[in-house]
Each structure stands twice: as structure tokens, then as C-alpha cells.
Design brief:
Blueprint: H1 3-9, H2 17-42, H3 47-57, E1 64-65, H4 66-72, H5 80-89, E2 93-97, E3 105-109, H6 111-134, H7 137-151
Antiparallel strand pairs: 1-3, 2-3
Helix pairs in contact: 2-6
Length: about 160
């Protein structure tokens, strides 16, 4: 067990099975993240920027206030304001005030942002196809269930 992990990390043994499992999760997450980052880089985006665009695209033509964006992010970012500012500079999102509370600043994806997501979508889907080509549906379901079991108690 763990032969590929041993090769990846260039080590011959692990302290425990728990350590091996944790390291396998970290390596797999790094591997998938780096593949996604390569795609995002081709479109001039970071992973957090892509995540914000994806979140806003899901509620278009409405938007979200900053706190709602943060609560929906894969990795909540404390610097979401700067992420949004950079996306605004590229005209991928816009800010507006809520109709119900003028003090509330909202962010919405623009048509340009939607088009960028549509352009990147085939490459993002191809990454999902990579997972599909290495795991059966039953394995994907089992893996998803096991991963949720690790962090599930923390979801509020």
C-alpha cells in the first residue's frame, strides 16, 4: 500500500497508516489543484478568482454581498475584497447597491465574466473527465463519501 505515494515523496515508510492517508489526501489535492491552476492561468485567473466568478455565475443576474461570497468559497479567503477589486479591474464583475438595503454592497458577474467562464468550461470539464477516466462511478461515490466524512462535522 502507498507505493505511488512513496515514489512521489521519495520515502520508503510512513509513521502510521493515519500519516499515509493524510499525505495521500494532501498529494491528491495538490495534484488536482495544480491541474486546475494551469487551466486558470491560461485565462488570467487565480483559483480564488475563478471560484468567485463561479459563485456569482450561479446567481446571475443577481449578486451576492461579500460575506455570502466568502461563505460559499471552497477555501474562504479573507481578502475577498481585493479579489473582487481585481475582477472589477478586468470588468469581469461589477458592484451595485442592494435594492432593499442601500448600505449593502453587492457584486454581480458581468457578461464578460460569463463569457470567460464559458470559454474555460471545456478545460475545467476535461479535468473532471480525468478523474472519471481513473475511477469507476462506485469508486467516485465511495471516495466522495469518505472525504465528506473527514470534514462533514465541521459544516454548519
Amino acid at each position: 500500500m502507498g507505493e505511488k505515494l512513496k515514489q512521489w515523496l521519495k520515502q520508503t515508510r510512513f509513521e502510521s497508516l493515519d500519516q499515509e492517508v493524510s499525505l495521500n489526501i494532501f498529494v491528491a489535492a495538490y495534484f488536482l489543484r495544480s491541474k486546475h491552476e494551469d487551466v486558470m492561468n491560461r485565462y488570467g485567473l487565480t483559483m480564488p478568482q475563478y471560484n468567485v466568478l463561479r459563485i456569482l455565475n450561479g446567481v446571475y443576474p443577481d449578486g451576492h454581498p461579500r460575506c455570502d461570497i466568502i461563505s460559499r468559497m471552497i477555501e474562504p479567503a479573507p481578502d475577498v475584497t481585493r479579489i473582487i477589486d481585481r475582477l472589477m479591474q478586468e470588468k469581469l464583475v461589477e458592484r451595485f447597491h442592494s435594492d432593499t438595503d442601500k448600505r449593502l454592497s453587492m457584486t454581480r458577474i458581468t457578461e464578460k465574466g460569463i463569457k470567460l467562464l464559458e470559454k474555460a468550461h471545456p478545460e475545467v470539464q476535461a479535468l473532471g473527465s480525468y478523474i472519471s477516466s481513473t475511477l469507476s462511478n462506485a469508486e467516485k461515490k465511495t471516495l466522495s463519501d469518505l472525504l465528506e466524512k473527514i470534514y462533514g462535522e465541521q459544516v454548519k
